[in-house]
Design a protein that fits this description.
By secondary structure, the protein is mostly helical. 74% of the residues lie in helices and 0% in strands.
Length: 195
């Protein structure tokens, strides 16, 4: 019996080799996401591609990945890509996912920077920036809507609303928001687990 089973904790299972997606399919999906996604709603792209269309992961597995990616240091979306790649195809999957997510964006930023410093007028760049900002906000809202299943009870929804109010309208520091909301989240999760 493993330590995890003795302690009553179940370790997350990695997809079995026969059910894991081929590397070329993983490469194609992550490259498509890396080439077409932007802003705070990128998790919605992952959920649509990997959970809804490909069915490589369940909703619960995806929500677990989102939670882990948010508590790790570094950019959440990079963490999420690497975690999902690791879960689906091991170390090579993590590397492919991280590269496919970051390289297209880096190339795009370099191209836009070149255009900007080559004299692209502000009359062109300003509307593009505003349009991308609006689309990014919409995608972030869509991602929250799709991932709402992680908040399984009214207490979890209350914590999400509290975090929104503290960070948004009240403009608290993210560290203060976490200091208030994390202990509450742990209590809610502990009570749910104890049921």
């Amino acid at each position: 019996m493993t330590v995890e089973h003795q302690a009553g904790v179940q370790a997350p299972e990695i997809a079995q080799p026969d059910s894991r997606p081929p590397l070329r399919d993983l490469l194609r999906e992550f490259l498509l996401i890396g080439s077409t996604s932007f802003g705070g709603g990128r998790a919605a792209y992952f959920q649509d591609a990997l959970v809804k269309r490909r069915r490589w992961l369940t909703d619960d597995e995806f929500l677990e990945a989102v939670a882990v990616s948010q508590i790790l240091p570094g950019p959440n979306i990079g963490n999420l890509a690497a975690y999902l790649g690791q879960r689906l195809r091991g170390g090579r999957g993590a590397l492919i996912a991280a590269l496919c997510l970051t390289v297209p964006g880096a190339i795009s930023i370099l191209a836009l920077a070149w255009l900007y410093f080559s004299g692209m007028p502000a009359s062109v760049t300003e509307p593009i920036g505003k349009g991308v900002s609006a689309a990014s906000a919409g995608l972030a809202a869509a991602a929250v809507w799709r991932l709402r299943g992680g908040a399984g009870n009214p207490a979890a929804y209350a914590i999400a609303a509290l975090a929104f109010i503290l960070f948004g309208p009240l403009e608290w520091s993210i560290f203060l928001v976490l200091a208030v909301c994390l202990p509450l989240s742990f209590v809610v999760a502990w009570r749910e687990h104890a049921k």
